[in-house]
Design brief:
about 550 residues; Beta-Lactamase; five-stranded antiparallel sheet; 14 helices; rod-shaped
Length: about 550
């Protein structure tokens, strides 16, 4: 900006100087020309008087230095000329100054030479006898005068240029200094030119708007990044060429990527996963979906094109872990098959015994045992159906079951009383120890949990064995433990015993009448109450199942 102001000032100064010089020269030139013309007129008048008095004899003793004298008759013929022979001179009747003198008594004119280097002034006066006396004066043209003044003009020009430069430097710095010192971060705190006040106010308003918009964008970006980084699902954003724009932490962990992959080709990152087809479709504007397995788990990959104005701008890849869904579907199929099997077994037994009784193919002494078998199998079906209903409610999270403040020790006492007849029949000693332990939960589920653990301890025990139920409050939670001296569980089955219809010893389970759903009910009930289950077991020595409520 300083250079522009400097150049502008210099240019303006030079233009003004040159214009002024030309104007002054022109004015002076015309001024001196008018003076010369006036002097020439006076000289013409004096010469006319001399000619009128003395005739042509006036010219004989006249010494002419600065001007030329010409005497012309009324027809334009030259009678006398101070510089040329009259015989060789052309007729002057058509000359402008002669015409004016003939018509008005006096006439004058100005004429330039062919080369424009000289200008002539003419003054003509009509005498009493009708003749015309003309005086002429030669002057250099303004161009010749300017050439003659070239040296002084150049000196003056150089001086003017130096002064202009010095003034331009000083003035431009002085003008620009307040502008350079403006604090644009705080526009209203500046002491700049008053003319800049509206401009600075506008800058201040725009800065406030920009700061507000920047803060909003930063907030939105932070929220977006937080959401993306906290997503359990892997997410990758691609541009039109399949280059990675964004990749969250879940995706990096899933694909075992520890380096910055921004700008890398997605095909190199997903090599071997078989995603080429859906990626190609998505980059061309068509969504795609594919099931893959990574690290032993199942993922559904959704490739969704990002379009703007019906043109594909990129692709979003989402990795959804559907392992649990897959396992749940597998468990559902297995559960359905197991339920069908478990229901068919007692039904077939009931139908078989009933058919024998119906056809009177049973001895009289066998009728009561047959009826007892039918009853036992029917009871088994009832227990199975009740357990299935309980599991269904637990799968739904027991949303329709209200939570109450419950003493777990009192529930254990009730469960123990219910299990006592079964324990006596099995020859198992059942004991309860501990103290009051209050928590907020669903009494029915908590009772069922204690009952099933105690029932399992009795069923899978030895004669003269023991089952101990312990309930106590600890410093950071409540402990429920059921220990038995039974057949135990091999270590490889500790995780599987909570699966539905899973039995370690199927023959023994059927012999004792178990449904295979008791521990599944325990697991779900514990999960609903934020309980953690631990299994400790030694084959043929016993098992301890602990549920800890935090």
């Amino acid at each position: 900006m300083t250079k522009r102001i400097f150049h502008s000032i210099c240019l303006a100064a030079l233009v003004v100087f040159l214009a002024s010089a030309i104007l002054i020269m022109g004015v002076l030139y015309e001024y001196f020309s008018s003076i010369g013309q006036a002097q020439l007129k006076m000289q013409t008048s004096l010469a006319a008087q001399g000619v009128a008095n003395e005739g042509i004899g006036y010219f004989q003793h006249l010494e002419v230095k600065d001007c030329r004298i010409t005497w012309i008759d009324g027809r334009g013929n030259v009678l006398y000329d101070s510089e040329s022979d009259t015989a060789n001179m052309e007729n002057h009747l058509e000359r402008e100054e002669v015409q004016k003198a003939i018509a008005e008594g006096y006439g004058e004119s100005k004429r330039y030479s062919a080369t424009l280097t000289e200008r002539s002034l003419y003054s003509a006066q009509k005498l009493a006898d009708g003749t015309i006396l003309r005086l002429s004066l030669s002057q250099n043209s303004i161009f010749i005068l300017l050439l003659g003044m070239a040296q002084p003009v150049c000196v003056i020009f150089a001086i003017a240029l130096a002064i202009s430069i010095a003034l331009a430097v000083r003035v431009s710095k002085k003008i620009v200094m307040p502008l350079n010192e403006i604090d644009l971060d705080h526009p209203l705190s500046n002491n700049a030119y008053d003319e800049l006040a509206p401009f600075l106010q506008r800058i201040d308003r725009q800065q406030k708007q920009l700061q507000s918009q920047k803060a909003l964008l930063l907030q939105r970006e932070t929220e977006r990044n937080t959401i993306i980084s906290c997503m359990n699902e892997g997410m990758i954003l691609l541009n039109q060429r399949g280059k990675i724009l964004t990749m969250n932490a879940s995706a990096k962990k899933l694909l075992d990527t520890r380096t910055d992959c921004i700008g890398a080709d997605i095909l190199f990152l997903t090599q071997g996963l078989g995603l080429e087809e859906i990626l190609s479709k998505a980059l061309n504007g068509a969504p795609g979906e594919q099931i893959i397995r990574i690290h032993g788990e199942t993922y559904r990959v959704d490739a969704s094109p990002i379009a703007s104005q019906d043109t594909a701008r990129g692709t979003a890849l989402f990795f959804f872990n559907i392992t649990e869904e897959e396992n749940a579907e597998k468990m559902r199929r297995e559960f359905t098959a197991n339920v069908s099997h478990e229901l068919k077994t007692p039904l077939h037994c009931i139908l078989g015994y009933a058919e024998l009784l119906k056809n009177d193919l049973v001895k009289e002494e066998d009728r009561i045992p047959f009826a007892g078998k039918i009853y036992d199998e029917a009871q088994r079906m009832v227990r199975l159906v009740e357990d299935i209903i309980s599991l269904s409610r637990l799968d739904e999270g027991a949303k329709d079951m209200p939570r109450e403040t419950t003493d777990l020790y009192e529930l254990a006492q009730r469960a123990m009383q219910s299990l006592m007849p079964e324990a006596r029949d099995a020859g198992v000693a059942l004991t309860l120890s501990g103290s009051s332990a209050v928590l907020k939960g669903i009494p029915q589920l908590l009772y069922g949990m204690i009952y099933n653990l105690g029932d399992n301890g009795i069923k899978y025990n030895h004669r003269n064995g023991k089952v101990s139920i312990t309930v106590r409050k600890e410093h950071d939670g409540i402990l429920l433990a059921v220990a038995d001296t039974g057949i135990g569980i091999p270590p490889e089955y500790h995780e599987r015993i909570f699966e539905r219809f899973y039995r370690v010893d199927k023959n023994h389970s059927r012999a004792v009448g178990g449904t295979g759903l008791g521990l599944s009910i325990v697991k779900h009930a514990a999960k609903i109450h934020n309980g953690k289950i631990r299994v400790e077991s030694i084959p043929e020595k016993g098992t301890v199942i602990t549920v800890y409520f935090s």
